[in-house]
Specification:
single chain, mainly alpha, Na+/H+ antiporter like fold
Length: 308
């Protein structure tokens, strides 16, 4: 466990560096926004394409693994919504709490850390978890928010959600990479070198941007933040791991990777989701901050338990 902790320190060191840069005034909110946009559209897309282009759809999509993640995640998702509704939250606020409890920072932290910590054999599983988050949970959240406000769910809404999904650079990168692999297209050396160099900026850029954005996080909703952080960092990993082992009899490695993926802190793009729909964002922003800081300790613990 100590070895895992030491191996994760460089990643969190980059996050801390971003926070210090913003705190010192050397990296403004505007600079953070531009860095985030650069990483999201370019280095991260290149890294995802590189991973996906070396895999087949069959390697990524394993029915039992996918089912274990979705069932375990939905148990936490629905349980959190039910609990928050009992405690007096509106449907939208309860939904956001449920969403935060299962959607981790896979695109920025998971893809950067887990293949290095767990080995290349973890990459197909990491990408599958990312696909589930992007293709299942995000469209679901948007659809439920809009349907709740309109009072119904219509074809126009579904088409709008799907159109937005197809514009997501991560979805496009995965689709293009898998198509590239399926068609067995040879990547020219010059293009490959370009993509490798560009993808190399993803890990430091993404983690630095996470740290800088934490400096500007709103504070509030302390009780809800504690619940969300506990759900995301502990309940979610154990829920998916137990589902994997007890229901689907997955291998120890698959269950361990599943737990490690679920141990990622709350995803930053949930803040953009709630801001877009004018849902109070203080609890989301604070949950991202708290869960990211606490994950310095919890990620090594979860990985250590899962792999031992």
């Amino acid at each position: 466990m100590l070895e895992v902790f030491l191996n994760t320190l460089p990643f969190f060191g980059l996050i801390a560096l971003g926070f210090v840069a913003a705190y010192s005034g050397n990296f403004t909110r505007e600079a953070t926004a531009y860095l985030t946009k650069f990483v999201f559209y370019f280095p991260l897309s290149a890294m995802i394409f590189n991973f996906a282009s070396e895999l087949s759809l069959g390697e990524i999509f394993e029915l039992k693994f996918t089912a274990a993640y979705l069932i375990g995640s939905f148990a936490v998702y629905l349980g959190t919504i039910w609990l928050r509704r009992l405690q007096g939250d509106s449907f939208e606020l309860a939904l956001v709490s449920g969403h935060c409890s299962v959607i981790g920072n896979m695109g920025w932290m998971g893809l950067a850390m887990l293949p290095i910590l767990l080995g290349k054999e973890s990459i197909p599983y990491v990408i599958m978890v990312l696909i589930c988050d992007l293709v299942v949970f995000y469209p679901l959240a948007v659809s439920l928010i809009v349907a709740n406000r309109k009072g119904h769910l219509d074809i126009k809404l579904i088409a709008s959600v799907l159109a937005g999904l197809l514009k997501n650079p991560m979805v496009l990168s995965i689709g293009l990479g898998l198509s590239w692999s399926a068609l067995d297209i040879h990547t020219p050396d010059t293009l490959n070198q370009f993509l490798v160099i560009l993808a190399g900026a993803s890990t430091p850029g993404a983690l630095f941007a996470i740290g800088a954005s934490m400096m500007y996080a709103q504070r509030g909703g302390y009780g809800t933040t504690a619940l969300i952080s506990a759900n995301k960092l502990f309940v979610h990993p154990f829920a998916v791991a137990l589902t994997a082992i007890l229901i689907f009899d997955l291998t120890e490695f698959q269950a361990a990777v599943l737990a490690a993926c679920a141990a990622m802190p709350v995803a930053g793009n949930i803040y953009m989701l709630v801001s877009h729909y004018n849902i109070p964002s203080d609890r989301v922003s604070f949950s991202i901050l708290v869960s990211t800081v606490v994950s310095i300790l919890t990620i090594p613990i979860i990985i250590g338990i899962a792999f031992n």
